[in-house]
Design brief:
- The protein is globular, with a radius of gyration of 19 Å.
- The chain is mostly beta strands and 204 residues long.
- Helix content is 5%, strand content 48%.
């Protein structure tokens, strides 16, 4: 189907174009060489629940795919992140923001006529590739704790691997302790608990 009236690029808008939650209808560019553009439009807010309508637009101006996510108390526009380091941008749509962490719908960028596939959801404050196809998602637990969860894409779905949990003690030295919890995926990537402890806690 043809795209609606062309939207301004999100990066070109000044602050007056955005509402108090940092939202505005605008066009995003993945800048990964794929040629796609991503139009983001917001529906009517009903009891802090907001439909986020996303159109993926080709170079010919036609909408190649369209989908809707539901945002609730979320802040900021969708964003692009090459989560697994495959040089293709993945689209992350904010669904809900807590005191610190934000829960995102993850749409993986893929080859082909359908350029994005919904892979699942992740929560945190920082996301990115962690080597060997692993994806890291870092989240705050409290003022003295944080967590980094690791995932892989399998069949374009997010699969949890393990989580490194870090606690800061309240002694004078501010000692950090780190432990790894198997989220059911260590065997899948051929890593023992000892190996996971060495790898993931060293990264923390």
């Amino acid at each position: 189907k043809p795209a609606e009236a062309s939207l301004a690029l999100c990066d070109s808008l000044d602050e007056t174009a955005f509402n108090d939650n940092g939202l505005a209808d605008c066009r995003m560019d993945p800048s990964d060489g794929s040629g796609w553009k991503v139009d983001v439009r917001y529906g009517e807010d009903v009891d802090n629940t907001l439909p986020v309508v996303i159109d993926i637009v080709g170079a010919d101006g036609a909408v190649k795919m369209s989908f809707t996510e539901t945002s609730e108390f979320a802040y900021g526009l969708p964003d692009f992140n090459d989560l697994d380091g495959d040089a293709r941008a993945d689209l992350m749509v904010p669904l809900m923001t807590g005191n610190v962490n934000t829960n995102y719908a993850v749409w993986r960028g893929v080859e082909g006529d359908v350029p994005y596939v919904r892979a699942g959801e992740m929560s945190g404050v920082g996301f990115g590739p962690a080597g060997d196809g692993l994806i890291s998602a870092s989240a705050r637990g409290s003022a003295a704790s944080w967590f980094t969860s690791y995932f892989i894409f399998d069949n374009n779905l997010l699969v949890p691997i393990a989580t490194a949990e870090v606690e800061l003690s309240n002694d004078d030295e501010g000692t950090e302790t780190c432990k790894v919890v198997d989220d059911g995926g260590l065997a899948r990537i051929g890593l023992s608990m000892e190996g996971a402890q060495l790898r993931f806690c060293a990264e923390e």
